[in-house]
Write a structure and sequence with these properties.
The complex is a heterodimer of chains A (about 425) and B (about 180).
Chain A: H1 18-23, H2 28-36, H3 39-48, H4 61-66, E1 77-82, H5 91-98, H6 100-114, E2 118-123, H7 128-143, E3 159-164, H8 174-181, E4 205-209, H9 210-222, H10 224-229, E5 239-246, E6 252-257, H11 262-269, E7 279-283, E8 292-293, H12 303-308, E9 317-322, H13 327-341, H14 347-364, H15 372-382, H16 390-404, H17 406-415
Chain B: H1 2-16, H2 24-35, H3 40-50, H4 54-61, E1 75-80, H5 83-87, H6 90-101, E2 114-119, E3 131-133, E4 136-138, H7 143-167
Parallel strand pairs in B: 1-2
Antiparallel strand pairs in B: 1-3, 3-4
Helix pairs in contact in B: 1-2, 2-3, 3-4
The chains are: A alpha/beta (about 425), B alpha+beta (about 180).
Protein backbone atom coordinates (compact mmCIF):
# COMPACT_ATOMS: atom_id res chain seq x y z
CA UNK A 1 0.00 0.00 0.00
CA UNK A 2 1.37 3.37 -1.02
CA UNK A 3 1.09 6.41 1.28
CA UNK A 4 -2.27 8.11 1.14
CA UNK A 5 -2.11 11.88 1.17
CA UNK A 6 -5.09 13.46 -0.59
CA UNK A 7 -7.45 10.61 0.19
CA UNK A 8 -6.13 9.76 3.67
CA UNK A 9 -9.38 10.83 5.33
CA UNK A 10 -11.71 9.19 2.80
CA UNK A 11 -14.62 7.29 4.31
CA UNK A 12 -17.08 5.05 2.52
CA UNK A 13 -20.24 6.99 3.37
CA UNK A 14 -19.55 10.54 4.51
CA UNK A 15 -17.19 13.49 4.35
CA UNK A 16 -14.36 14.07 6.82
CA UNK A 17 -15.38 16.75 9.32
CA UNK A 18 -13.31 19.78 10.20
CA UNK A 19 -12.19 18.06 13.43
CA UNK A 20 -11.13 14.94 11.54
CA UNK A 21 -9.26 17.00 8.98
CA UNK A 22 -7.45 18.86 11.76
CA UNK A 23 -6.55 15.61 13.54
CA UNK A 24 -4.71 14.57 10.38
CA UNK A 25 -2.72 17.82 10.44
CA UNK A 26 -5.20 19.93 8.53
CA UNK A 27 -4.85 23.76 8.70
CA UNK A 28 -1.39 23.35 10.30
CA UNK A 29 0.20 24.45 7.04
CA UNK A 30 -2.04 27.51 6.87
CA UNK A 31 -1.36 28.67 10.41
CA UNK A 32 2.39 28.14 10.03
CA UNK A 33 2.52 29.93 6.67
CA UNK A 34 0.47 32.91 7.84
CA UNK A 35 2.70 33.25 10.86
CA UNK A 36 6.11 32.85 9.33
CA UNK A 37 6.21 32.87 5.53
CA UNK A 38 5.91 35.59 2.92
CA UNK A 39 3.82 34.99 -0.23
CA UNK A 40 6.98 34.83 -2.35
CA UNK A 41 8.31 31.98 -0.19
CA UNK A 42 5.07 30.06 -0.65
CA UNK A 43 5.27 30.45 -4.41
CA UNK A 44 8.88 29.28 -4.36
CA UNK A 45 8.01 26.12 -2.40
CA UNK A 46 5.29 25.25 -4.91
CA UNK A 47 7.72 25.90 -7.75
CA UNK A 48 10.38 23.69 -6.15
CA UNK A 49 7.83 20.94 -5.55
CA UNK A 50 7.18 20.82 -9.33
CA UNK A 51 3.45 20.80 -8.69
CA UNK A 52 1.98 20.36 -12.16
CA UNK A 53 -1.69 21.21 -12.82
CA UNK A 54 -3.91 18.16 -12.35
CA UNK A 55 -6.76 19.47 -14.52
CA UNK A 56 -5.23 18.14 -17.73
CA UNK A 57 -2.77 20.74 -18.99
CA UNK A 58 0.04 19.96 -16.48
CA UNK A 59 1.10 23.59 -16.28
CA UNK A 60 3.35 24.22 -13.23
CA UNK A 61 1.23 25.83 -10.51
CA UNK A 62 4.20 27.76 -9.13
CA UNK A 63 5.03 29.26 -12.51
CA UNK A 64 1.44 30.35 -13.00
CA UNK A 65 1.48 32.10 -9.63
CA UNK A 66 4.81 33.76 -10.44
CA UNK A 67 3.22 35.41 -13.48
CA UNK A 68 1.08 37.56 -11.20
CA UNK A 69 3.20 40.71 -11.11
CA UNK A 70 4.26 42.08 -7.72
CA UNK A 71 2.58 45.38 -8.51
CA UNK A 72 -0.50 43.82 -10.13
CA UNK A 73 -3.74 45.62 -9.25
CA UNK A 74 -6.34 44.53 -6.69
CA UNK A 75 -8.69 42.83 -6.14
CA UNK A 76 -7.08 39.63 -7.35
CA UNK A 77 -9.05 36.44 -7.81
CA UNK A 78 -8.39 32.77 -7.22
CA UNK A 79 -10.68 30.43 -9.13
CA UNK A 80 -10.96 26.73 -8.36
CA UNK A 81 -11.93 24.77 -11.44
CA UNK A 82 -14.34 22.12 -10.17
CA UNK A 83 -16.06 21.87 -13.56
CA UNK A 84 -14.55 18.44 -14.22
CA UNK A 85 -16.40 17.67 -17.44
CA UNK A 86 -13.65 15.70 -19.18
CA UNK A 87 -15.30 12.34 -19.96
CA UNK A 88 -14.04 9.59 -17.69
CA UNK A 89 -12.98 12.01 -14.97
CA UNK A 90 -14.54 11.96 -11.50
CA UNK A 91 -11.58 12.48 -9.14
CA UNK A 92 -12.50 16.03 -8.14
CA UNK A 93 -15.95 14.89 -7.07
CA UNK A 94 -14.36 12.16 -4.95
CA UNK A 95 -11.86 14.63 -3.45
CA UNK A 96 -14.58 17.11 -2.46
CA UNK A 97 -16.81 14.40 -1.02
CA UNK A 98 -13.88 12.88 0.91
CA UNK A 99 -12.26 15.89 2.52
CA UNK A 100 -13.70 19.32 1.64
CA UNK A 101 -11.50 21.23 4.09
CA UNK A 102 -8.41 20.05 2.25
CA UNK A 103 -9.60 22.03 -0.78
CA UNK A 104 -10.61 25.01 1.37
CA UNK A 105 -7.17 25.13 3.03
CA UNK A 106 -5.49 24.71 -0.36
CA UNK A 107 -7.43 27.69 -1.66
CA UNK A 108 -6.63 29.82 1.38
CA UNK A 109 -2.92 29.07 0.90
CA UNK A 110 -2.98 29.64 -2.86
CA UNK A 111 -4.80 32.92 -2.37
CA UNK A 112 -2.19 34.01 0.17
CA UNK A 113 0.57 33.14 -2.31
CA UNK A 114 -0.82 35.61 -4.87
CA UNK A 115 -2.49 38.03 -2.43
CA UNK A 116 -5.97 37.25 -3.77
CA UNK A 117 -8.81 38.25 -1.51
CA UNK A 118 -11.64 36.63 -3.46
CA UNK A 119 -11.95 32.92 -4.15
CA UNK A 120 -14.56 31.23 -6.33
CA UNK A 121 -15.22 27.53 -6.77
CA UNK A 122 -16.71 26.99 -10.24
CA UNK A 123 -18.67 23.74 -10.15
CA UNK A 124 -20.71 21.75 -12.66
CA UNK A 125 -24.44 21.27 -12.03
CA UNK A 126 -24.13 17.49 -11.91
CA UNK A 127 -22.13 17.99 -8.70
CA UNK A 128 -24.90 19.76 -6.79
CA UNK A 129 -24.19 17.48 -3.80
CA UNK A 130 -20.56 18.58 -3.75
CA UNK A 131 -21.60 22.25 -4.11
CA UNK A 132 -23.81 21.98 -1.02
CA UNK A 133 -21.06 20.25 0.97
CA UNK A 134 -18.67 23.04 0.05
CA UNK A 135 -21.09 25.82 0.98
CA UNK A 136 -21.73 24.25 4.35
CA UNK A 137 -18.06 23.55 5.10
CA UNK A 138 -16.98 27.03 3.94
CA UNK A 139 -19.33 28.38 6.62
CA UNK A 140 -17.75 26.07 9.19
CA UNK A 141 -14.24 27.09 8.16
CA UNK A 142 -15.18 30.75 8.42
CA UNK A 143 -16.55 30.28 11.93
CA UNK A 144 -13.33 28.53 12.89
CA UNK A 145 -11.32 31.51 11.64
CA UNK A 146 -9.74 29.82 8.61
CA UNK A 147 -11.59 32.01 6.11
CA UNK A 148 -12.97 35.52 6.09
CA UNK A 149 -11.46 38.66 7.56
CA UNK A 150 -8.12 38.62 9.36
CA UNK A 151 -7.53 34.85 9.16
CA UNK A 152 -6.00 33.50 12.39
CA UNK A 153 -5.14 37.04 13.39
CA UNK A 154 -2.67 37.40 10.51
CA UNK A 155 -4.23 40.41 8.87
CA UNK A 156 -4.79 38.37 5.70
CA UNK A 157 -8.41 38.15 4.48
CA UNK A 158 -9.93 35.74 2.00
CA UNK A 159 -13.58 35.23 1.10
CA UNK A 160 -14.66 32.04 -0.67
CA UNK A 161 -17.88 31.38 -2.60
CA UNK A 162 -19.34 28.62 -4.77
CA UNK A 163 -20.44 29.44 -8.33
CA UNK A 164 -22.79 26.97 -10.01
CA UNK A 165 -22.41 26.43 -13.75
CA UNK A 166 -25.30 25.82 -16.13
CA UNK A 167 -23.40 22.84 -17.53
CA UNK A 168 -21.19 22.85 -20.61
CA UNK A 169 -17.82 21.16 -21.26
CA UNK A 170 -16.10 24.27 -22.65
CA UNK A 171 -16.55 25.98 -19.27
CA UNK A 172 -13.58 23.92 -18.09
CA UNK A 173 -11.32 25.92 -20.39
CA UNK A 174 -9.71 28.76 -18.43
CA UNK A 175 -10.78 31.75 -20.48
CA UNK A 176 -14.23 30.30 -21.19
CA UNK A 177 -14.68 29.79 -17.46
CA UNK A 178 -13.89 33.44 -16.81
CA UNK A 179 -16.54 34.45 -19.36
CA UNK A 180 -18.99 32.07 -17.67
CA UNK A 181 -18.24 33.64 -14.28
CA UNK A 182 -18.98 37.06 -15.72
CA UNK A 183 -22.36 35.91 -17.02
CA UNK A 184 -21.19 35.97 -20.63
CA UNK A 185 -21.44 33.25 -23.25
CA UNK A 186 -18.53 30.95 -22.35
CA UNK A 187 -16.47 31.22 -25.51
CA UNK A 188 -12.73 30.96 -25.01
CA UNK A 189 -10.66 34.13 -25.34
CA UNK A 190 -7.24 34.05 -26.90
CA UNK A 191 -4.42 35.38 -24.72
CA UNK A 192 -2.64 37.70 -24.29
CA UNK A 193 -3.55 39.21 -21.97
CA UNK A 194 -3.24 36.12 -19.78
CA UNK A 195 -5.74 35.69 -16.96
CA UNK A 196 -3.00 36.26 -14.37
CA UNK A 197 -2.67 39.75 -15.84
CA UNK A 198 -6.26 40.53 -16.87
CA UNK A 199 -8.69 37.81 -15.88
CA UNK A 200 -12.00 38.01 -14.09
CA UNK A 201 -13.41 41.55 -14.37
CA UNK A 202 -10.07 42.49 -15.95
CA UNK A 203 -8.25 41.78 -12.69
CA UNK A 204 -5.38 39.32 -12.08
CA UNK A 205 -6.85 35.83 -11.76
CA UNK A 206 -5.22 32.51 -10.96
CA UNK A 207 -7.19 29.41 -11.89
CA UNK A 208 -6.29 25.96 -10.55
CA UNK A 209 -7.87 22.53 -10.60
CA UNK A 210 -9.35 20.95 -7.44
CA UNK A 211 -6.68 18.25 -7.13
CA UNK A 212 -3.85 20.74 -7.67
CA UNK A 213 -5.18 22.93 -4.87
CA UNK A 214 -5.64 19.89 -2.61
CA UNK A 215 -1.90 19.14 -2.91
CA UNK A 216 -0.90 22.58 -1.61
CA UNK A 217 -1.54 22.16 2.16
CA UNK A 218 0.55 18.98 2.18
CA UNK A 219 3.42 20.55 0.25
CA UNK A 220 3.58 23.52 2.60
CA UNK A 221 3.38 21.31 5.66
CA UNK A 222 5.95 18.72 4.54
CA UNK A 223 8.16 20.52 2.06
CA UNK A 224 8.94 20.41 -1.64
CA UNK A 225 11.43 17.55 -1.39
CA UNK A 226 8.92 15.34 0.46
CA UNK A 227 6.40 15.96 -2.32
CA UNK A 228 8.87 15.08 -5.06
CA UNK A 229 9.89 11.92 -3.20
CA UNK A 230 6.31 10.67 -3.25
CA UNK A 231 6.68 9.94 -6.97
CA UNK A 232 8.21 6.70 -8.19
CA UNK A 233 9.86 8.33 -11.19
CA UNK A 234 12.58 10.96 -11.33
CA UNK A 235 10.44 13.13 -13.61
CA UNK A 236 7.31 12.91 -11.46
CA UNK A 237 6.30 14.66 -8.25
CA UNK A 238 3.56 13.87 -5.75
CA UNK A 239 0.75 11.40 -5.85
CA UNK A 240 -1.98 11.24 -8.45
CA UNK A 241 -5.62 10.44 -7.91
CA UNK A 242 -6.29 8.06 -10.79
CA UNK A 243 -9.91 7.50 -11.69
CA UNK A 244 -10.30 4.22 -13.49
CA UNK A 245 -13.44 2.99 -15.24
CA UNK A 246 -14.59 0.74 -18.06
CA UNK A 247 -13.90 -2.98 -18.30
CA UNK A 248 -12.28 -3.47 -14.90
CA UNK A 249 -13.62 -5.19 -11.79
CA UNK A 250 -13.31 -2.30 -9.34
CA UNK A 251 -13.79 1.06 -11.06
CA UNK A 252 -13.05 3.99 -8.77
CA UNK A 253 -10.47 6.49 -7.54
CA UNK A 254 -7.09 5.33 -6.34
CA UNK A 255 -4.40 7.62 -4.98
CA UNK A 256 -1.06 6.25 -6.17
CA UNK A 257 2.42 7.66 -6.59
CA UNK A 258 3.05 9.54 -9.80
CA UNK A 259 4.86 7.12 -12.13
CA UNK A 260 3.06 3.95 -11.01
CA UNK A 261 2.76 1.45 -13.84
CA UNK A 262 -0.51 1.20 -15.78
CA UNK A 263 -0.53 -2.60 -15.37
CA UNK A 264 -0.25 -2.22 -11.60
CA UNK A 265 -3.20 0.20 -11.45
CA UNK A 266 -5.35 -2.17 -13.47
CA UNK A 267 -4.34 -5.41 -11.78
CA UNK A 268 -3.59 -4.46 -8.17
CA UNK A 269 -6.08 -1.66 -7.59
CA UNK A 270 -8.88 -1.92 -10.13
CA UNK A 271 -9.14 -5.66 -9.51
CA UNK A 272 -8.05 -6.70 -13.00
CA UNK A 273 -10.13 -7.00 -16.11
CA UNK A 274 -13.80 -7.98 -15.86
CA UNK A 275 -14.56 -11.67 -16.24
CA UNK A 276 -13.30 -12.93 -19.55
CA UNK A 277 -12.16 -9.54 -20.73
CA UNK A 278 -8.68 -8.88 -22.05
CA UNK A 279 -7.00 -5.47 -22.08
CA UNK A 280 -7.05 -3.97 -25.54
CA UNK A 281 -6.52 -0.26 -25.01
CA UNK A 282 -7.20 2.62 -22.65
CA UNK A 283 -7.41 6.37 -22.65
CA UNK A 284 -4.95 7.48 -19.96
CA UNK A 285 -6.37 10.85 -19.01
CA UNK A 286 -9.81 11.69 -20.31
CA UNK A 287 -11.44 11.89 -23.72
CA UNK A 288 -8.91 14.33 -25.10
CA UNK A 289 -5.94 11.99 -24.82
CA UNK A 290 -4.82 9.31 -27.27
CA UNK A 291 -4.99 5.54 -26.82
CA UNK A 292 -2.49 3.41 -24.95
CA UNK A 293 -2.37 -0.17 -26.22
CA UNK A 294 -0.87 -3.52 -25.24
CA UNK A 295 2.62 -2.20 -26.06
CA UNK A 296 2.17 0.47 -23.35
CA UNK A 297 0.65 -1.86 -20.77
CA UNK A 298 3.53 -1.41 -18.31
CA UNK A 299 4.08 2.30 -18.94
CA UNK A 300 4.96 4.54 -15.99
CA UNK A 301 2.03 6.86 -15.51
CA UNK A 302 3.50 10.33 -15.22
CA UNK A 303 3.47 13.43 -17.38
CA UNK A 304 6.91 12.85 -18.91
CA UNK A 305 6.54 9.15 -19.72
CA UNK A 306 3.28 9.75 -21.53
CA UNK A 307 4.68 12.69 -23.42
CA UNK A 308 7.47 10.41 -24.67
CA UNK A 309 4.95 8.10 -26.34
CA UNK A 310 3.10 11.04 -27.90
CA UNK A 311 0.30 10.95 -25.37
CA UNK A 312 -0.74 12.95 -22.29
CA UNK A 313 -1.52 12.07 -18.69
CA UNK A 314 -4.36 14.59 -18.85
CA UNK A 315 -6.59 14.22 -15.80
CA UNK A 316 -5.40 10.69 -15.03
CA UNK A 317 -8.86 9.33 -15.88
CA UNK A 318 -8.14 5.86 -17.23
CA UNK A 319 -10.90 4.33 -19.36
CA UNK A 320 -10.24 0.69 -20.16
CA UNK A 321 -11.45 -1.04 -23.34
CA UNK A 322 -11.50 -4.80 -23.85
CA UNK A 323 -11.13 -7.07 -26.87
CA UNK A 324 -14.88 -6.94 -27.62
CA UNK A 325 -14.96 -3.14 -27.86
CA UNK A 326 -14.91 -1.73 -31.38
CA UNK A 327 -12.38 1.07 -31.38
CA UNK A 328 -14.05 2.79 -34.36
CA UNK A 329 -17.35 2.87 -32.45
CA UNK A 330 -15.61 4.02 -29.26
CA UNK A 331 -13.88 6.85 -31.13
CA UNK A 332 -17.14 7.74 -32.83
CA UNK A 333 -18.77 8.03 -29.40
CA UNK A 334 -15.95 10.30 -28.21
CA UNK A 335 -16.18 12.53 -31.27
CA UNK A 336 -19.98 12.73 -30.89
CA UNK A 337 -19.29 14.18 -27.46
CA UNK A 338 -16.95 16.81 -28.86
CA UNK A 339 -19.31 17.66 -31.72
CA UNK A 340 -22.12 18.25 -29.24
CA UNK A 341 -20.02 20.22 -26.80
CA UNK A 342 -18.10 22.47 -29.20
CA UNK A 343 -18.99 26.07 -28.38
CA UNK A 344 -19.12 26.80 -32.11
CA UNK A 345 -17.03 29.93 -31.89
CA UNK A 346 -14.35 29.04 -34.45
CA UNK A 347 -14.66 27.25 -37.77
CA UNK A 348 -12.10 24.41 -37.49
CA UNK A 349 -13.83 23.13 -34.37
CA UNK A 350 -17.45 23.85 -35.34
CA UNK A 351 -17.15 22.40 -38.86
CA UNK A 352 -14.20 20.01 -38.55
CA UNK A 353 -15.45 17.87 -35.69
CA UNK A 354 -18.82 17.03 -37.31
CA UNK A 355 -16.91 16.25 -40.52
CA UNK A 356 -14.76 13.73 -38.65
CA UNK A 357 -17.87 12.35 -36.98
CA UNK A 358 -19.56 11.80 -40.36
CA UNK A 359 -16.56 9.93 -41.76
CA UNK A 360 -16.29 7.73 -38.66
CA UNK A 361 -20.01 7.11 -38.81
CA UNK A 362 -19.74 5.94 -42.42
CA UNK A 363 -16.86 3.60 -41.56
CA UNK A 364 -18.68 2.19 -38.54
CA UNK A 365 -21.90 1.55 -40.49
CA UNK A 366 -20.08 -0.17 -43.37
CA UNK A 367 -20.21 2.69 -45.85
CA UNK A 368 -16.59 3.72 -45.50
CA UNK A 369 -14.07 3.87 -48.33
CA UNK A 370 -10.32 3.41 -48.35
CA UNK A 371 -9.87 7.13 -49.07
CA UNK A 372 -11.56 7.98 -45.75
CA UNK A 373 -8.44 7.10 -43.78
CA UNK A 374 -6.09 9.63 -45.45
CA UNK A 375 -8.94 12.15 -45.40
CA UNK A 376 -9.25 11.75 -41.64
CA UNK A 377 -5.51 12.26 -41.18
CA UNK A 378 -5.69 15.49 -43.16
CA UNK A 379 -8.67 16.93 -41.30
CA UNK A 380 -7.16 16.09 -37.92
CA UNK A 381 -4.21 18.30 -38.80
CA UNK A 382 -6.49 21.23 -39.65
CA UNK A 383 -8.12 21.02 -36.24
CA UNK A 384 -4.87 21.99 -34.58
CA UNK A 385 -5.51 25.49 -35.97
CA UNK A 386 -8.58 26.02 -33.81
CA UNK A 387 -8.99 28.88 -31.36
CA UNK A 388 -8.47 26.93 -28.12
CA UNK A 389 -7.32 23.49 -26.92
CA UNK A 390 -10.76 21.93 -27.40
CA UNK A 391 -10.31 20.80 -31.03
CA UNK A 392 -6.73 19.48 -30.64
CA UNK A 393 -8.08 17.54 -27.65
CA UNK A 394 -10.97 16.20 -29.71
CA UNK A 395 -8.67 14.80 -32.39
CA UNK A 396 -6.37 13.05 -29.89
CA UNK A 397 -8.40 9.80 -29.81
CA UNK A 398 -8.95 10.01 -33.59
CA UNK A 399 -5.21 10.26 -34.13
CA UNK A 400 -4.81 7.36 -31.70
CA UNK A 401 -7.28 5.34 -33.76
CA UNK A 402 -5.34 6.11 -36.92
CA UNK A 403 -2.01 5.21 -35.30
CA UNK A 404 -2.93 2.03 -33.45
CA UNK A 405 -6.13 0.68 -34.98
CA UNK A 406 -5.89 1.33 -38.70
CA UNK A 407 -6.38 -2.42 -39.18
CA UNK A 408 -9.77 -2.21 -37.45
CA UNK A 409 -10.76 0.69 -39.66
CA UNK A 410 -9.69 -1.25 -42.77
CA UNK A 411 -11.62 -4.31 -41.58
CA UNK A 412 -14.79 -2.19 -41.37
CA UNK A 413 -14.19 -0.82 -44.85
CA UNK A 414 -13.40 -4.21 -46.43
CA UNK A 415 -16.21 -6.13 -44.75
CA UNK A 416 -18.67 -3.25 -45.28
CA UNK A 417 -19.87 -3.64 -41.68
CA UNK A 418 -18.67 -3.42 -38.11
CA UNK A 419 -16.77 -6.67 -37.45
CA UNK A 420 -17.69 -6.43 -33.75
CA UNK A 421 -21.44 -6.42 -34.30
CA UNK A 422 -23.30 -9.70 -34.03
CA UNK A 423 -20.16 -11.63 -33.27
CA UNK B 1 -43.67 28.42 -1.14
CA UNK B 2 -39.91 28.24 -0.96
CA UNK B 3 -39.51 29.17 -4.63
CA UNK B 4 -41.02 32.63 -4.11
CA UNK B 5 -38.64 33.41 -1.29
CA UNK B 6 -35.80 32.08 -3.44
CA UNK B 7 -36.41 34.79 -6.06
CA UNK B 8 -36.76 37.38 -3.31
CA UNK B 9 -33.44 36.47 -1.75
CA UNK B 10 -31.90 36.53 -5.22
CA UNK B 11 -33.16 40.08 -5.70
CA UNK B 12 -31.34 41.07 -2.55
CA UNK B 13 -28.22 39.29 -3.74
CA UNK B 14 -28.41 41.09 -7.08
CA UNK B 15 -28.70 44.46 -5.34
CA UNK B 16 -25.66 43.65 -3.21
CA UNK B 17 -23.55 42.31 -6.08
CA UNK B 18 -20.82 44.43 -7.60
CA UNK B 19 -21.40 42.69 -10.94
CA UNK B 20 -25.03 41.50 -11.04
CA UNK B 21 -24.53 39.57 -14.30
CA UNK B 22 -22.32 37.04 -12.49
CA UNK B 23 -25.61 35.74 -11.04
CA UNK B 24 -27.12 35.06 -14.48
CA UNK B 25 -27.13 31.27 -14.15
CA UNK B 26 -28.49 31.41 -10.59
CA UNK B 27 -31.30 33.73 -11.67
CA UNK B 28 -32.24 31.58 -14.67
CA UNK B 29 -32.16 28.48 -12.46
CA UNK B 30 -34.37 30.12 -9.82
CA UNK B 31 -36.98 31.19 -12.37
CA UNK B 32 -36.85 27.71 -13.84
CA UNK B 33 -37.34 26.15 -10.41
CA UNK B 34 -40.41 28.33 -9.87
CA UNK B 35 -42.01 27.97 -13.33
CA UNK B 36 -40.81 24.50 -14.31
CA UNK B 37 -38.79 25.89 -17.23
CA UNK B 38 -37.40 29.17 -18.55
CA UNK B 39 -40.18 30.65 -20.68
CA UNK B 40 -39.91 33.73 -22.90
CA UNK B 41 -41.43 35.69 -20.03
CA UNK B 42 -38.80 34.14 -17.75
CA UNK B 43 -36.03 35.31 -20.06
CA UNK B 44 -37.44 38.84 -19.99
CA UNK B 45 -37.77 38.68 -16.20
CA UNK B 46 -34.17 37.51 -15.79
CA UNK B 47 -32.99 40.30 -18.10
CA UNK B 48 -34.91 42.88 -16.06
CA UNK B 49 -33.55 41.60 -12.76
CA UNK B 50 -29.95 41.56 -13.98
CA UNK B 51 -29.96 44.73 -16.08
CA UNK B 52 -29.06 42.72 -19.15
CA UNK B 53 -30.79 42.52 -22.52
CA UNK B 54 -33.07 39.55 -23.26
CA UNK B 55 -30.75 38.43 -26.05
CA UNK B 56 -27.84 38.26 -23.62
CA UNK B 57 -29.94 35.99 -21.40
CA UNK B 58 -31.05 33.98 -24.40
CA UNK B 59 -27.51 33.25 -25.55
CA UNK B 60 -26.74 31.89 -22.10
CA UNK B 61 -30.02 30.00 -21.70
CA UNK B 62 -29.59 28.16 -24.99
CA UNK B 63 -25.93 27.45 -24.27
CA UNK B 64 -26.30 25.56 -21.02
CA UNK B 65 -27.47 21.95 -20.74
CA UNK B 66 -29.41 22.43 -17.51
CA UNK B 67 -31.43 25.48 -18.47
CA UNK B 68 -34.63 24.33 -20.17
CA UNK B 69 -36.20 26.71 -22.67
CA UNK B 70 -39.19 24.43 -23.18
CA UNK B 71 -41.55 22.86 -20.67
CA UNK B 72 -40.16 19.73 -19.06
CA UNK B 73 -41.65 17.09 -16.81
CA UNK B 74 -41.46 17.10 -13.05
CA UNK B 75 -38.64 14.59 -13.30
CA UNK B 76 -36.00 15.36 -15.90
CA UNK B 77 -34.02 12.22 -16.69
CA UNK B 78 -30.63 12.83 -18.27
CA UNK B 79 -29.14 9.67 -19.71
CA UNK B 80 -25.35 9.73 -19.91
CA UNK B 81 -24.26 8.52 -23.35
CA UNK B 82 -20.52 9.23 -23.14
CA UNK B 83 -17.91 6.58 -23.69
CA UNK B 84 -17.80 4.70 -20.37
CA UNK B 85 -21.58 4.53 -19.95
CA UNK B 86 -21.84 3.66 -23.66
CA UNK B 87 -19.48 0.73 -23.07
CA UNK B 88 -21.54 -0.38 -20.09
CA UNK B 89 -24.90 -0.33 -21.86
CA UNK B 90 -26.20 3.25 -21.97
CA UNK B 91 -28.05 2.47 -25.22
CA UNK B 92 -30.01 -0.32 -23.52
CA UNK B 93 -30.85 2.03 -20.64
CA UNK B 94 -32.08 4.70 -23.04
CA UNK B 95 -34.13 2.27 -25.14
CA UNK B 96 -35.69 0.75 -22.06
CA UNK B 97 -36.70 4.13 -20.68
CA UNK B 98 -38.19 5.21 -24.01
CA UNK B 99 -40.27 2.03 -24.10
CA UNK B 100 -41.27 2.14 -20.42
CA UNK B 101 -42.34 5.80 -20.62
CA UNK B 102 -43.71 5.62 -24.17
CA UNK B 103 -41.77 8.67 -25.34
CA UNK B 104 -38.71 9.41 -27.45
CA UNK B 105 -35.58 11.24 -26.38
CA UNK B 106 -36.38 14.93 -25.93
CA UNK B 107 -40.05 14.32 -25.18
CA UNK B 108 -42.20 14.59 -22.04
CA UNK B 109 -44.80 12.07 -20.92
CA UNK B 110 -48.41 13.30 -21.45
CA UNK B 111 -48.99 13.33 -17.68
CA UNK B 112 -46.15 15.83 -17.31
CA UNK B 113 -44.12 13.59 -15.04
CA UNK B 114 -41.04 12.58 -17.04
CA UNK B 115 -38.75 14.14 -19.65
CA UNK B 116 -35.96 12.16 -21.33
CA UNK B 117 -32.80 13.92 -22.45
CA UNK B 118 -29.33 12.72 -23.41
CA UNK B 119 -26.38 14.23 -21.59
CA UNK B 120 -22.61 14.05 -21.93
CA UNK B 121 -20.41 12.46 -19.26
CA UNK B 122 -21.84 13.31 -15.83
CA UNK B 123 -18.72 12.31 -13.88
CA UNK B 124 -20.08 9.05 -12.48
CA UNK B 125 -18.01 6.71 -14.67
CA UNK B 126 -17.20 4.60 -11.61
CA UNK B 127 -20.94 3.89 -11.43
CA UNK B 128 -21.66 3.30 -15.14
CA UNK B 129 -24.19 3.05 -16.62
CA UNK B 130 -25.46 6.12 -14.82
CA UNK B 131 -28.27 8.63 -15.23
CA UNK B 132 -29.35 11.83 -13.51
CA UNK B 133 -32.87 12.43 -12.32
CA UNK B 134 -33.35 16.07 -11.28
CA UNK B 135 -29.55 16.26 -10.90
CA UNK B 136 -29.37 13.25 -8.57
CA UNK B 137 -27.13 10.46 -9.89
CA UNK B 138 -28.20 6.81 -10.10
CA UNK B 139 -25.87 3.94 -10.99
CA UNK B 140 -24.62 1.41 -11.78
CA UNK B 141 -28.04 0.64 -13.22
CA UNK B 142 -29.68 -2.60 -14.23
CA UNK B 143 -33.02 -2.72 -16.03
CA UNK B 144 -34.67 -4.04 -12.86
CA UNK B 145 -33.33 -1.20 -10.75
CA UNK B 146 -34.34 1.35 -13.34
CA UNK B 147 -37.92 0.03 -13.23
CA UNK B 148 -37.96 0.25 -9.45
CA UNK B 149 -36.71 3.86 -9.52
CA UNK B 150 -39.31 4.92 -12.10
CA UNK B 151 -42.12 3.14 -10.22
CA UNK B 152 -41.01 4.79 -7.00
CA UNK B 153 -41.16 8.24 -8.56
CA UNK B 154 -44.53 7.55 -10.15
CA UNK B 155 -46.04 6.47 -6.86
CA UNK B 156 -44.52 9.15 -4.70
CA UNK B 157 -45.71 11.73 -7.14
CA UNK B 158 -49.22 10.33 -7.35
CA UNK B 159 -49.50 10.83 -3.64
CA UNK B 160 -48.18 14.37 -3.72
CA UNK B 161 -49.59 15.64 -6.97
CA UNK B 162 -52.97 16.79 -5.76
CA UNK B 163 -51.51 18.57 -2.76
CA UNK B 164 -48.78 20.19 -4.82
CA UNK B 165 -51.19 21.48 -7.44
CA UNK B 166 -53.57 22.87 -4.88
CA UNK B 167 -50.72 24.74 -3.21
CA UNK B 168 -49.10 25.93 -6.43
CA UNK B 169 -51.34 26.32 -9.49
CA UNK B 170 -48.28 27.38 -11.52
CA UNK B 171 -47.45 23.71 -11.83
CA UNK B 172 -50.10 23.70 -14.56
CA UNK B 173 -47.42 25.11 -16.80
CA UNK B 174 -45.95 21.64 -16.87
CA UNK B 175 -49.00 20.18 -18.58
CA UNK B 176 -49.00 20.03 -22.32
Amino acid sequence: MYPQVLLQNRKPDRIATLAEYQRSGGYEGLSRVLEAQAPTEVRQVLLDAILLGRGGAAFPAGVKMMTVAEDAPFPRYLVCNADEMEPGTFKDRVLIHADPHQLIEGMALASYAVSAEHGIIFIRPEYEGAARILEREIGIAREAGFLGKNILGSGFSFELVVHRSGGRYICGEVTAQLNALEGRRPNPKQPPPYPTEKGLWQKPTVLQNVETLCCIPHILKNGAQWFKDLALTESGAGTKVFGISGKVNRPGCYELPMGVRLSEIIEEYAGGMKNGAAFKACLPGGASTSYLTQEHYHIEMDFEALKKVGNRLGTGAIMVFDQHTCMVAATLNLIEFFARESCGWCTPCREGIPYIRDILWRIETGEGEASDIPALRKICKYLWHAYCAFAPGAVAPVEGLLTYFEDEMTAHINQKKCPFKGS
Amino acid sequence: MQTESQTESLEKEIQAAEHPRELAVDVMAAIQARDGYLSDAGVAEAAGLLGMSPVEIEELATFYTFIYREPVGRYVIHICDSVVCWMEGAETIGEHLMKALGIRMGETTPDGLFTLLPVCCIGYCDRAPAILINKKAYGPLTIGELDRIIDGLRNSDDANEAAAEAANPKKQVLKR
